[in-house]
Amino acid sequence: MIESLFSRIESKREELISFTQDLVRIPTINPPGKDYIKCAELLGNRLAKSGFSLIYERANNSPGDSDRYPRHNVIARIEGQHSGPCIHFNGHLDVVVPGRGWTVDPFEGLVQDGKIYGRGTCDMKGGLSAAVIAMEAILEENIHFPGAIEISGTVDEETGGYGGVAFLAEKGFFSKPRVDHVIIPEPLNVDRVCLGHRGAWWAEVETFGRIAHGSMPFLGDSAIRHMSAFLELLESRLFPALDKKQTSMPVVPEGARRSTLNLQAVHGGEAESFDGMPSPCVPDSCRLIMDRRFLIEENIAEVKAEVTSLLDELADSRLNFRYQIRDIMEFLPTMTDADAPVVQAVSSALKNILGKTPEHIISPGTYDQKHIARIGHLHDCIAYGPGILDLAHQPDEYIVIDDMVTAAKVMAASTLELLGARS
């Protein structure tokens, strides 16, 4: 049965390439969230031809949702011959902006040297395409299976996942008894199983000043200078402290096995969108966006206190220092047990196909497993996909076609094991 199934997947190689190209050629750039319905319908229409039933769900009033950029998701399901568990493959449809530095068209889907190039090939339309081909091959082989198979195409993963997996999890799409096992084809390399991710806390710090004429700054109070004092404390105190925090989680790459802080953006004074020449004003506001990634050994309250203690110190020691801090989002670290059924099934399939024991890893950044765990309370969930992690969000992003074929075989074999299928 397995040999015939793998041969079927090999025979669908050109379909795998062309479907990936079709997905990539729809520029689902987020933000703002372009062409979601077009991409969801492409996925849904293909799965419907194999007998999947479809549900389209718009995440009304979720962040970014509007009539111009509606947040449309698709969930496809096919029932087996009798009752049993359900395995769900979830892929996000959105991609980040192409950015500068490309040497090929980011939305052409160029095939060259055994690779498909384009924004989203690696992260993660190639992985989603591999899951589709794998499930089609099972159906075409007429393999009887109990339970059900689901495939979803969801939105907004790149901006937190609130209009996608979080919205669907709130509606019960990622909870038992509907779903038992979840595989997310994120690009964590074809020979590794990702058990989870570090925690994340995003926050905005705003410092305040007093507006005055720029030629007489002594009559005002610069919010930017206040922010610079905070930035100096981050540099001299917090960054060195974070470098010393190490984790037992198998996070990749090695540099992410410690706590990190990214200063995402700074906005102060004259608005970035002004036309013409700037006016001479002392800035009365400065805002800093912070992206803090933390470890399973850390407590979220302590993570926040490390920042607020520095701000409070400045409020006590620096003349007229005033601030406010606003949480943007926060997610705790998550790590599926290595003995969980989905981990064991995928690991076994990888060992049989590649001939080596796969590495179990943790992602440096969060992905939609966070919503499945915290909202759906479903913990038999991993990320497994064919993309190369380091290529995500890079110019000239690509996916290796052979890796997609291998991943499809792993997904198919894992599905049969988890469902208890027979020929």
Secondary-structure blueprint of this entry?
Elements: H1 2-11, H2 13-24, H3 36-49, E1 53-58, E2 72-79, E3 86-92, E4 111-112, E5 115-117, H4 121-140, E6 148-154, H5 165-170, E7 181-184, E8 192-197, E9 199-208, H6 223-243, E10 260-268, E11 285-294, H7 300-317, E12 323-331, E13 334-335, H8 341-354, E14 359-363, H9 369-374, E15 381-383, E16 398-400, H10 401-419
Parallel strand pairs: 3-6, 3-7, 7-15, 8-14
Antiparallel strand pairs: 1-2, 2-6, 4-5, 5-16, 8-13, 9-11, 9-12, 10-11
Helix pairs in contact: 1-4, 1-10, 2-4, 4-10, 6-7, 8-10
Pfam families: M20_dimer, Peptidase_M20
InterPro entries: ArgE/DapE (IPR010182), Bact_exopeptidase_dim_dom (IPR036264), Peptidase_M20 (IPR002933), Peptidase_M20_dimer (IPR011650), Peptidase_M20A (IPR050072)
GO molecular function, one term: hydrolase activity
Describe the structure.
With 423 residues, the protein is of the alpha/beta class. It folds into two domains: 283 residues, Aminopeptidase (3-Layer(aba) Sandwich), CATH 3.40.630.10; 133 residues, 2-Layer Sandwich (Alpha-Beta Plaits), CATH 3.30.70. Helices cover 33% and strands 22% of the residues. It has ten helices and 16 strands. The strands form four sheets. The protein has a six-stranded mixed sheet with strand order 1-2-6-3-7-15. A hairpin with a 2-residue loop joins strand 4 and strand 5. The termini are close together.
